[in-house]
Amino acid sequence: MNGIFKAFLVKYGEIGIKGKNRYIFENALMDQIRYALKPFGDFYVLKEQGRIIVEAHDEFDYDDVIGALTKVFGIVAICPVAVVENNEWENLKNEATAYMKMIYEEKELTFKVAARRSDKAYPLDSMEICAKMGEHILDTCPNLNVDVHNPEVKLNVEIRNKTYLFSLVIPGPGGMPVGSNGKAMLLLSGGIDSPVAGYMIAKRGVALEAVYFHSHPYTSDRAKQKVVDLAGIVARYSGPIKLHVVPFTEIQLYIHEKTPHEQLTIIMRRIMMQIAEKIADKQGALGLITGESIGQVASQTIQSLNCTNAVCSMPVFRPVIGFDKQEIVNISQRIGTYETSILPFEDCCTIFVAKHPVTKPNLKAIMRSEEMLIEMNAMIERAINETEVILAQR
Amino acid sequence: MQVYFDNAATTKPTKQVIDKMIQVYSDDYGNTSSLHTKGIEAENHIKESRFGIAKLLKVEEKELYFTSGGTESNNTAIFGAAYANQRMGKHIITTSIEHASVTNVLLQLEKEGFEITFLTVDEKGLISLNELEKSIRSDTILVSTIYVNNEIGIVQDVERIGKLIKRVNPKTLYHVDAVQAYGKLNIYPNKQNIDLLSASSHKIHGPKGVGLLFVKEKTKLRPLIFGGDHQRGMRSGTENTPGVVGFYVATNNMYSNIALITDKLKEIKLYFLDRIKEIEDIQINSDVSLTAPHIVSISFKDIKSEVLLHALETKGIYISTGSACSSNKPGKSSTISAIGVDKIFADGTIRFSFCMDNTLEEVDYCIDTLKQELSILRKYTRKK
Q1: Which of A364, B223, B238, B263 suits B318 as a labelling partner, its CA being 20 to 30 A distant?
Q2: In sequence order, which ranges of A239-359 are alpha helices (DSSP H)?
Q3: C-beta atoms of B304 and A350 within 8 A
């Protein structure tokens, strides 16, 4: 497909209906498109009549550009556009026919021509263009038949100072452009669920930062690298992610020492939420995101979720809460985080995992145990101060 | 302080090796197969290296082949011997403490219809000659044993093993995986009744990506890699001239100074073993009189070896886990379980491996750090 397409027409749905705020969303989408295409060449992005047009000012690789655009939230569809410089009718007719031959080769298909002209001085009107061009294509391509009501291919012909030809429609990811809906803090582990959760919230236009709790030497630097890599993959969709790596060993050991073992995980989760909320607050994020799914593990029963939820005042977004594991796995495979998520690097934390953790924790009992943790506030402060920030990008 | 005690994993190439390789890379970059002068120059380097190594091992030049490393040598030796001799039988004997590049080749052959006998080892890691003798049959085409075990350093008596094999069935071939022995012990394949022997360059301060396979004259072996008939068709592929030259320099360094080097290694090892006794609840898996001078395996009670590894790494000490903790690879046989180390010790097994550049000060630092870290780690164990 390299070579024939010189522009892309980007269609967006939901953001088109946002009334007076519409320009904010459109500008955010254009920013995201510019950012996504930056590594692949020189592109000019402009807004026009409820669509965005991306024009290439340079050579580019078609597959790279489609790969990048299909990751930009807010895009509903992408149409690759062939540009005809000379509008003169004979030439245009032949170019359009050549286009159809090139794209659809010998395939048996039905088609129709849909014409628009902003150049009202053009010698033919839209109806005439449709009829005459359709006729010429029909005569030249024996494999193509006309169906004006339900065609398999709609060849759009838009005549301006140049002519745009397009017929292919490539679905985009939908959602809203990142940055149009504020920012949230993702609790990112090395697992399968949290990157998916981040992806899903970013899809609603929310910019991401992430926090990861690192327990060296109980977790290795490879485990940390894995989280950086996962953040990098999510960043292909969400844009760059600031990853806050919180040193967590001291806190974990302290909980281990002072509280009943079967409560360790739940107390640890509560502390993690507190730290994440503090960092979120500092960074101007307005919510937390977790990959929790009801009942998946002991710390994700509805009782446990109540206990962890009770420490935060910020809203906690749990986009995969009602998903089965397999459904989450399917998304992670589609967005490309799965292969990294399943790398086995965290086998050494077993001392922190009780054989039989509480599955129905009682909030009062948990809070009573936490009263034993008199040094915890100081430790939390220290952990936040010693947090390392890594910028994860594709 | 940076302490590299992971020399059984790989070693730092010496300056001499690197300098020589740079020279060959820059000046003598020809393809050994080319007919012009550049090719001949390169070929001369290979010839010289092969000649030099042959002399050190007291073998013929034509009995040596250069490969891409220990794994390729082991694969070629075992697959090659099995396929070339299968009309005489399909029975192969090995031990339960082999490196994966031997064990997994044999497991593959088992799937292809060969019968494999795995010899047990005693608590020190030694096979029983008695059991070996009883296992050799008329259809036994190959015995493959490791020379120096990579996890605990136990040295098998290959000379007696070789003699025994040839006495019971002269047609049975003997392959020795000498990757950890090469350069540290004197190896004379012909005297030791060895038909096939594998070695690797990067374990002795040579470059990575180079290995050696000794094939005794007249041994039937099917090549693993086919192509332009380099190395007389046994191992096709353009020779890695700089790598081979680097390997030769490294080999020569080791064997020219072998007494000096082994004395130094022994000194470090004895000192290490002496000082490690200051630590409680440990088990030493490497009997000093029976193991190679560069490897010590220690099991620490109530410790997860990978956690200890990361704790030591923070202090600049680099070691390996003794592989029992590779619990994320279940079903993998390991030397530690083969010698019957109790589970509460086995999970905390660490391999320390030395080279001639290590010092007693480094041992002191390592032991002192171990004491500190263990006191922290042992305080926090999994509650029952």
Answers
A1: B263
A2: 249-258, 264-283, 302-309, 325-335, 338-341
A3: yes
Model confidence pLDDT, tens digit, residues A79-123:
999 999 998 999 999 999 999 999 998 889 999 999 998 878 889
- CATH for the stretch A183-392: 3.40.50.620
Check residue A70 and give its pLDDT. 95
Domain boundaries, chain A: 1-81, 87-164, 183-392
Closest CA to A350 of A266, A256, A278, A258: A256
Where does chain B hold its CATH 3.40.640.10 domain(s)? 15-256
Which CATH number is associated with domain B15-256? 3.40.640.10
- Tens of pLDDT, residue by residue over B51-92, are 999 999 999 999 999 999 999 999 999 999 999 999 999 999
Of these residues, B325, B346, B356, B363, which one is catalytic? B325
Q: Provide the CATH number for the domain formed by A87-164 in this structure.
A: 3.30.2300.10
- Chain B CB contacts of A261 under 8 Å are 383
Residue A203's nearest CA partner among A186, A181, A185 is A181
B313 at the A interface (CB within 8 A)? Answer: yes
| Nearest chain B Cα distance for residue A179, angstroms | 39
Q: How high is the ipTM of this complex?
A: 0.80
**CATH architecture of the domain with residue range A1-81:** 2-Layer Sandwich (3.30)
Q: How far is B2 from chain A (nearest CA, A)?
A: 18
> Which chain B residues touch A221 with a CB distance below 8 Å?
310, 313
* Residue-level pLDDT at A346: 57
Banded model confidence at residue B337, pLDDT cuts 50, 70, 90: confident
d(CA A208, CA A230): 13
Q: Most B CBs within 10 Å: which of A252, A262, A263, A347, as the mutation test of the B interface?
A: A347
Q: Which residues of B touch A353 (CB under 8 A)?
A: 382
Q: Is B311 on the interface with A (CB under 8 A)?
A: yes
pTM of the model: 0.86
Query: What per-residue string of b and e applies to B305-330 under the rule 16 or more CB within 10 Å gives b?
Result: bbbbbbbbeebebebbbbbbbeeeee
Residue A4: pLDDT band by 50, 70, 90 thresholds? Answer: confident
The matching CATH number, chosen from 3.40.50.2300, 3.90.1150.10, 3.40.50.300, 3.30.1460.10, for B3-11+258-379 is: 3.90.1150.10
Q: Given this model, what pLDDT does residue B287 score?
A: 92
Query: Directed axis angle between helix A249-258 and helix A376-385, to 10°?
Result: 170
Task: List B residues 6-25 in contact with A (Cβ-Cβ < 8 A).
Answer: none
Numbered residues of chain A with Cβ closer than 8 Å to any chain B Cβ: 216-221, 253, 256-257, 261, 344, 347-348, 350-351, 353-354
Asked whether the predicted pLDDT for residue B324 surpasses 50, the reply is: no
pLDDT value at residue B325: 40
For residue A180, name the pLDDT band (cuts at 50, 70, 90): confident
Pairing of strands A51-56, A43-48: antiparallel
Annotation marks residue B325 as catalytic? yes
- CB contact under 8 Å between A253 and B380, yes or no, is yes
Chain B residue numbers touching A218 (CB-CB < 8 A): 307, 310
Task: Return the pLDDT at B20.
Answer: 98
Q: From CA A231, how far away is CA A208, in angstroms rounded?
A: 10
Q: Which residues of A touch B309 (CB under 8 A)?
A: 217
Strand stretches in A41-198, DSSP E: 43-48, 51-56, 77-84, 109-117, 144-146, 153-159, 163-166, 170-171, 183-187
Q: Which of A225, A348, A352, A358 to mutate to test the interface with B (most CBs of B within 10 A)?
A: A348
Question: Per mean pLDDT, which range of A78-92, A216-230, B321-335 is the poorest?
Answer: B321-335
Peptide bond into A247 cis (omega under 30): no
- Closest approach of chain B CAs to the CA of A252, in angstroms? 10
